[in-house]
Amino acid sequence: MSVSKEEVIKIAKLAKLKFSDEGISKLQKEMNRILEYIDTLNEIPELDKVEPLYSVNSSENVFRKDEPKQSISKEEALKNAPDKTENFFRVPKVIDK
Amino acid sequence: MSRDYGKYEPVIGLEVHAQMKTKSKAFCSCSTDFNSPPNTNVCPICIGHPGTLPVLNKSLVDFILKLGIALNCNIERRSIFARKNYFYPDLPKGYQISQYDTPICSDGYLEIKYRRIGIQRIHMEEDAGKSLHDLSDDSSLVDLNRSGIPLIEIVSQPDLRSAEEAYDYLSKLKQMLVYLDICDGNMEEGSLRCDVNVSVRLKGDSEYGTKCEVKNLNSFKNTADALDYEICRQIDILEKGDKVIHQTLTYDAIQKITYPMRSKEEAHDYRYFPEPDLVSVYVDENWISEIKGSMPELPDVRRARFINDYGLPEYDAEVLTAEKSVADFFESVVSRVKNPKSASNWVMGDVMRVLNDKKISIGEFWISSGNLAALINLIEEGKISNNIGRTVYEEMLKVKQKNDERQNPEYIIKEKNLILVSDENELERVVKKVLADNPTEAERYRNGEKKLLGFFIGKVMRETGGKADPKKLNEILSKNLN
Q: What is the ipTM of this complex?
């Protein structure tokens, strides 16, 4: 398995990142090196019979009771926002109607 | 809504998002109250601050298991959560916690009028925040109260064959959600949202045609209307010999048309992967039996019981059990009266008329089941006539407090002096007076014009203010006329 240049560009676009041509080549090389490393796992016999490990955490059923609790105030919630109104987070217009 | 599609057959699958009626959010303890001011039910977890960790609300799992069992699903013993990745300003983490390849419930069915509609899967996820685009010209505003509210997504098999069937499926699904008390079913507040997948093929074809998706339908009627429009649009394309293009559409409820979403909005690649911040959910046999033990009576079972136990016609049972709250009200009335059919007539007729006129739910109806039952008993026992009963009911409707004694029918008939005149001497006196006042009609009756009986009954009723006991009156009239 290997990553093409187009795939790197697509992944960058999905992550809202921009790279120079040089940067893309570098990323492509690095990603392929990671995949090659992962590929060594394919040498394990009968790999398809091994249950996938979804989490390194072996516990299960960690729950919360359904009890509402007041947490932070509106002012605190909005405090770190780069842009806001009195009651809302303000973001660039996301639809044009 | 029912439409003949000629030689074509639509193939429809529905994805319904139902908001769960938990008190707190799916992965944090913030309140789910719909009426709170913007950005007040928020915490570092649901507004996506770094370093926070989600913890699953147990009630969400209980709720989805209830639905899974009610819809005859397989319950996945071990299921995990996954991240669905996309950027949007109302999704602060940059991903939605959802389930992907291990939905907790799968392969069930829901019975609608004529047949079984397959349920492909039901899974848990969290809602995003709400973007408001209309408050300002150059920016959008974001309210994160909804961020993290628990949803379940119910995906049907492509088993539906008309807009009408889709409507029936949605109604039945909503009925089930409300009966199970896991969703309030309120579409205006967004508690139920629907996406449809629809394609069209020639009847008898085994292959599906190319499908289109219509997103974000917010009422059952809009869903049915959007489907009707979309089915006809696709048939027109095929009739012209063209091909349907797979695309994502949105529905304009005012113009009643579907149109394509902008390509930017549909260019998604969610790159699902297992959510590392949550552990798996393991559902053992004990948990399932516990849920089964806590299940309420489901609509179909209740309908059958209404027919068997109360001897109601199928139609009555269907109407009365359509909504759980109406069925509860009816049972509260019927337990206090002798004749279940009278209780059914009153609830289906006079009570529902008020609900429809005032556009209110039975929960907002202000006559108590006890007072309604008392009224029905007064009529059944012959203390007041049916007509007077209607008058008393109108009086009861004027008293908006259930515990106000002026809503009690006994109080009203005493206060307004509405008890039936069944005293024979009194009736005899009135009948004699009426006959004396109308000698010509009395003569004609005696000469065989029997239909004039109604005329005399009317006269006596007028004299007594409608309060003459009809049975006794009949006897006395006959005696005096013959």
A: 0.89
